[in-house]
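Notebook entry, structure prediction.
Reason for the run: the old model in the group folder had no record of what sequence produced it. Starting over properly, with the input documented here first.
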Amino acid sequence: MRHTKADVILKDFWRSNERFADLFNAVMFDGEEVLRPELLEELDTDVSGVIEMRDYKETLTRARDVVKKSAGGVDFVVMGIENQQHVHYAMPLRNMIYDALGYLKEYQELTRPDAKTGTFVSDQKESAAHNGKDEDAGKNISAEEFLSGMRKDDRLHPIVTLTIYYGEKEWDGPHSLKEMMIDMPEELQAVVSDYPLNLLTVRDSGNYTFHNPDVQLVFDISREMMAGHFDEIQEKFGAVTVRPDLLSVIGTIAGNRKLVEIGRGKGIDNMYTALEKLERDNLNLGLEKGIEQGKLFIIRNLLNSGMSAEQVKKTAGVTEEEIKLAQAENRA
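New structure, fully documented this time:
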């Protein structure tokens, strides 16, 4: 299964406001309904930014997986999901960069050129400062505000990132920025800033209660499939109707391409039917491989008996490609 296709399937699944809110409420807020689906709004996933300082300038291009804005209360908070199918040993640093670029992007929004005047917000403040007033806020502008491009009471919006790890292997990567660092004496650890990783692993998703039926079903079946508990799946979910799109998500998480393909098809009424088809397809694939291996075995024996490739081709009714495969196995 190509990584890009898997990314698309997972991103599409979490774009649903109902699933997104349920995920964060269960994992980040101990099951409390802090996020409400009707108050979520999708944001641009591009967090690219330009870091500029005197003669230094660097453009960082980054795109997040899924980003939402929650308009709860008077203001809003930005929430992001990072889908991870393999252990990433720099994930705390990676998320810190994503979050920092998000803050940088908002800061640069405060100081971007005004569409009408063509001047920067700081330029407008400077003009107002000559009159001793801020025309927008109706207050004096200090030198410090002019220098920073922000008013003293300007505030950035908080950003929260949750990483979902779908791999079968246990997460043995760092859970914080400090865990990526060299061993330090306690005195130094106390003053070095840390950046924790908010992490959900599918194999541990049973520790949470999800209220969205799609989220609960996908995690439950994926977790059992990764553990190889197919009998338990048949017993618990055999009669449960599973939509094709959810089968594709489960197949993506479990790394089962056949299940993804089954999810794209039609006529799957329940999980029992899906697993039955999966077992049948695997059986057919095994038979095909067995027949192919048997054919190669016969070709190798004929070649080893002294027959030429042309004689084997006529005697056994095989193709030149199959003869080449048998010859390659003989040389191995």
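Summary: DSSP finds 13 helices and seven strands in the chain.
The old model has been moved to the deprecated folder.
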